[in-house]
Write a structure and sequence with these properties.
Blueprint: H1 2-10, E1 13-15, E2 25-32, E3 35-42, H2 46-67, H3 74-84, E4 88-89, H4 92-107, H5 117-122, H6 137-146, E5 153-156, E6 159-162, H7 175-189, E7 195-199, E8 202-206, E9 214-219, E10 226-232, E11 237-242, E12 247-250, E13 253-256, E14 270-277, H8 282-288, H9 290-307, E15 313-317, E16 322-325, H10 326-329, E17 333-334, E18 342-344
Parallel strand pairs: 16-18
Antiparallel strand pairs: 1-9, 2-3, 3-7, 4-6, 5-6, 7-8, 8-11, 9-10, 10-17, 11-14, 12-13, 14-15, 15-16
Helix pairs in contact: 2-7, 7-8
């Protein structure tokens, strides 16, 4: 319960609802992927909306059970096989997920790297509650030297193997986005055309909220409430990676779960990155494509955005300064009118 209560204070994107006459807005919440999820359906009778959302929630639980990195799951069984230098049979769905994640990792030049699950565990983030830990420097250096990559995984005839025993796949930066896309697919099949799906701050919009687009807010990384708001159009998704969601403090130093695979240490100097994505894979991209920008930091984020094909992105640096692309500037409305962001083409 404490985890759930804490989440309400740190959710990355807040749904801003408004009355739309007497048209029905059905909303249902759950707790999966270690975070709060919410599905909102507009303009349908409650029975129809409830049935459609129930199917989405069941799908979320199925994916959670399949892709969990440290509790018993298809993915954790695969990781155990990798550690032993053995191969393992995996489902066609997991094959496709691993191949897609590998392609995104290559596109990011390794800054998005789901193969570093061992480092994530070493820093204590394979847990529901985070306790301050300071891993041995030699252990961190060992992982960095081993350089586990998604490209180390080979898949033949439904069996996956890695010649690098340090490969431990953690899809925490991919699974929520994948689930968004699956939810959109399921809702469309049920004839639901107007909905908003929120998985821990990764939000995907279908249709509209009445006569208006879905209005969402981007959580301020250091204050309660929204830093900015924007309208999400049909098929658009927004994703935020922040150092305020999964972290611990050691002294005055903040250690977050977003680990730089090149150094082996949690990334510092960035408070949050927000990106806006479009198209058939908007969900996956809203989750995975924000990570390279965060890891690249204030100096490299814009180049990383270009690499990932993003024209609408924002970074809040360690001092709270806001950097954003001209494309996203056109879409945002900052809650503090005194904010003057640095805009890059």
């Amino acid at each position: 319960m404490a985890t759930l209560i804490r989440f309400f204070a740190i959710v990355a994107v807040l749904l801003l609802t408004a009355c739309e006459g007497k048209e029905p807005l059905y909303q249902e919440q759950g707790y999966v992927f270690g975070t709060l999820v919410e599905v909102s359906v507009y303009g349908e009778d409650e029975t129809r909306a409830r049935q459609a959302v129930s199917g989405v929630m069941q799908e979320f639980q199925r994916l959670h059970d399949m892709l969990h990195a440290w509790q018993p799951s298809e993915l954790s069984e695969l990781n155990a096989a990798f550690a032993k230098g053995e191969s393992a049979a995996i489902s066609a769905e997991l094959v496709a997920i691993l191949q897609d994640a590998a392609q995104l990792s290559q596109q990011s030049q390794g800054l998005f790297n789901p193969a570093i699950g061992g480092l994530v565990q070493l820093w204590g983030f394979h847990a529901d509650e985070f306790k301050p830990v300071q891993p041995d420097e030699k252990q961190v250096a060992q992982w960095v030297a081993a350089n586990p990559q998604m490209s180390d995984i080979s898949i033949e005839r439904g069996r996956a193997k890695s010649n690098n025993k340090f490969v431990q796949v953690d899809l925490g930066g991919y699974a929520k986005g994948y689930a968004l896309d699956r939810a959109a697919e399921l809702l469309h099949k049920q004839g639901i055309h107007n909905a908003l799906i929120n998985i821990g701050g990764n939000v995907l919009a279908l249709g509209q909220h009445g006569n208006h687009p879905w209005r969402v807010g981007i959580q301020h990384p250091r204050k309660s409430g929204a830093l900015a708001t924007l309208d999400l159009n049909d098929g658009e998704a927004i994703g935020t990676s922040g150092d305020y969601q999964r972290y611990f403090m050691l002294g005055n130093v903040r250690y977050c779960h977003l680990i730089n695979p090149r150094s082996g240490y949690p990334m510092q100097g960035v408070q949050a990155v927000t990106i806006l994505t479009h198209g058939t894979r908007a969900g996956v991209l809203s989750d995975a494509a924000s990570k390279p920008l965060f890891i690249a930091g204030a100096r490299g984020w814009r180049a990383a955005a270009t690499q990932m094909g993003l024209s609408e992105a924002m970074l809040v640096d360690g001092q709270g300064n806001i950097h954003l692309t001209a494309g996203l500037q056109k879409r945002l409305e900052f809650t503090d009118k005194n904010i003057h962001p640095e805009v890059e083409p």
